Amino acid sequence: MNQQLLNLINGDSSRYPHQLAEQHPRVLELIIASSQSDAFGAYLQSLLLDDRGNRQGFSSVVISEISTLIQANDERLLGYSLNETDVWGHVKEARHHLEESGTAFNKEGFFAAAERGETMKLVLFLKAGMKINATDHHGKTPLIWASSFGQLPCVGLLLANQAATESQDSGGYTALHWAAANGHAEVIQLLLEHGANANAVSKTGRTPLIQAAARGQRDAVMVLMEAGAYINHQDEEGETALHKALQQGHVHVSEALINHHADVELNNKAQINAYAMGLKHSNIAIRRLLSEKKFISQK
């Protein structure tokens, strides 16, 4: 184990990034080289963000380890030590830091930090005693807020601190539903690898796949299908992900669902199936897609 990293994590070997060292030794070297830099925290967060679309993907374990390093670095900058015996002193100090930053110690500030991707403030709120699965007036947790806005470092930090993936808001939607609706594929993958249910059902019977399809989020749809999402699940209106994609004119999502054997003959409560809906669609590309489906099925 590298001594510089051990110092960063206050000698706590349980927080050492063993999988990162094994799977990505070059990345670990770069982390160690930049650990004394003022931009170290920003560099750690950049590892989890794929702005150029060509970053080598990390496993959920490695993302959790990087998230732990982000938290450890934030704690270091704030002057915390795991060796301190005065736990209540940490609480008081964390609340003092929040006040100095102009942030009140309340749920609204906690949720705002998750939404905005402010990892250091999340660390402060947790140090100050805020419950990680606290809910707002809509039943949303910090994990739901971070997932909804695609804040991958915050999602990783919250999951590393045992945030519940299956908490539901007032509509019955989980963090996975919100990440799917907004097309945050990497967040979806991380949530799934931390045990999120790909087939969680909202109060109206909607799954994450239906949410993604309705919004035209093809990458999210693909990740969910690969994770075993039920393609032909019907919501309380009897509509499938394919129904929703067709209604909104999402050609590429509709095509992906059909290619993965979505049932075009399932009727919704209005007794309309996806096949009939597609053939009458105003979008010529969708009409062509369903016409080709008929041709293939008759061969």
TrEMBL record:
Q: What is the superkingdom listed in this entry's lineage? A: Bacteria
Task: Recite the UniProt keywords alphabetically.
Answer: ANK repeat, Repeat
Keyword RNA-binding recorded: no
Against SMART domains, the record matches this protein to: ANK
The ANK repeat boundaries are: 138-170, 171-203, 204-236, 237-269
Q: Which PANTHER family match?
A: ANKYRIN REPEAT DOMAIN-CONTAINING PROTEIN 39, ANKYRIN REPEAT DOMAIN-CONTAINING PROTEIN 39-RELATED
Under what name is this protein listed?
Ankyrin repeat domain-containing protein
Query: Can you name the source organism?
Result: Deefgea tanakiae
